[in-house]
Amino acid sequence: MPRPFPRSRLRSTAAVFTTLSALAATSLVTGPSVAEPFTVSPCILQRTEAHHSEGLDTWNTAYPRPARVLDAVTVFLSFPDSVPLTSPAELTADHFPATSRFFERASYGRFTLRPHPRRDWIRMPQPSTSYAIQRDWKPAHRAAYLRDALAAADGQVDFSRYDIVYFVADPDAPGVDSDATKVVNLDAPLRADGTDIRRVVTVFEQHPPDRLVLAHETGHVFDLPDLYHRPADGKGDWDTYVGDWDLMGSQFALAPDLFGWHKWKLGWLEPRQVACVRGAGPTRLTLEPLGAGPGVPVVGAAGAPAFGLGRGTKLAVVRTGVDSVLAFEARGPVGNDTQVCRPGILVYRVSSGAASGGGPVEVIDAHPHTEACWEASVYPPLADAPVSVGERFTVPGEDVRLEVEGRTASGAWTVKITTA
């Protein structure tokens, strides 16, 4: 993940580049995987061989589906060349319950991430400096780290009880680099307690850590891609694809709730909550705020609290090609998006053929000549991307026009989407 300089809109040139370039201890999973049918719709994109493909006609069973309770063990690793200055309890509080709460809100209560943190340090056999921990970690060093971590913990942890494994390193050990936090996908799984471990979240965060960093990495465990852009030379802005509009773009985002497309992919939106816009002419829809769930208060059109939203239409989709769609969703200050810069109807492109880190989702800026929220946004040019009430917006390069006609008393948005 990219990390900004403190309180600056500049992105760090030493930013983390996670799963896309993070070849696993043996190799990145690239071969075919078992798939199971997921849902049927004319607006569904087929899953491709692209890493973390945004296709959602089938579910890649190599990844756990977050539609139930999943148990995660957090193992804290110390090293013989350093005495920890923080306790496992303090490091646990850095990430939980915040991570679990994020997913509970994002999934409308459909998914529970249940943490099982260890209460003690487990000593690694080698000094921290011997593993050469860094952002673009060499496979041999990464393999040694994972092998030693699993061997050290196996006598105290029954890995067969858990769906997700977090290895958290002592943040004050001299060889620990906070830019190295990532998910490691294994071609040849590790084996412990009769269980294959196919991916591990390796955490090297400082104390306190980046906000929501563990939620971002856990998103990869559920087959979600990186949505940020890594400049070829590592310099420049990392947030040009989606800005503040999805956690998989930036853990610092003002509106980090997952895109409606991702919620559909993960099984958190029911088919009736997704409108597939087909045929020429206008289609009128009422879109609920993406973050609104049953019992969650929403500010209504008159500024007063409104309830009762959560089960209506959340996402509208227009098919634009064999592997591409336009998506429309209402974003406002509710749920995980309480700090949103400019509410409105967000428009974005989705491509199932683009790999993680290669722009599988791109937010379309309805106000390309203005910027907003300079002091807090990760990318101000996209902070005011949504279409507001009374505005009309024609999507560049497409015969698709959006008109936001108004708000309902309950806080939903009434829109008209016209296709040629």
How many E-type strands? 18
H/E element sequence: EEEHHEHEEEHHEEEEEEEEHEEE
Sheet-strand content, in percent, reads 25-35%
Secondary-structure class: alpha+beta
Terminal CA distance reads: 39 Å
Shape call:
elongated
What is the gyration radius calculated from CA atoms?
21 Å
By DSSP (H or I, 4+ residues per run), the number of helices equals 6
Mean pLDDT: 89
Largest sheet: 5 strands, mixed
Which parts are unreliable, with pLDDT below 50 for 5 consecutive residues or more?
A: 4-32
**Order of strands across the widest beta sheet?**
4-3-5-7-6
Task: Determine the fraction of residues in helical runs and give it as a percent range.
Answer: 10-25%
Summarize the model shown.
With 420 residues, the protein is of the alpha+beta class.
Question: How is this structure best described in words?
Answer:
It is a single chain. This protein has 420 residues and is α+β, with helices and mostly antiparallel strands. The protein is 12% helix and 27% strand. It has helices at 88-95, 98-106, 139-154, 213-221, 260-265, 380-383; strands spanning 35-37, 58-60, 69-78, 112-123, 164-169, 182-192, 195-203, 274-277, 281-287, 298-299, 305-306, 315-321, 324-331, 344-351, 361-363, 392-394, 400-407, 413-419. The protein has a 5-stranded mixed beta sheet with strand order 4-3-5-7-6. The radius of gyration is 21 Å and the shape is elongated. The protein starts with 34 loop residues before the first strand and ends with a strand. Residues 4-32 have low confidence and may be disordered.
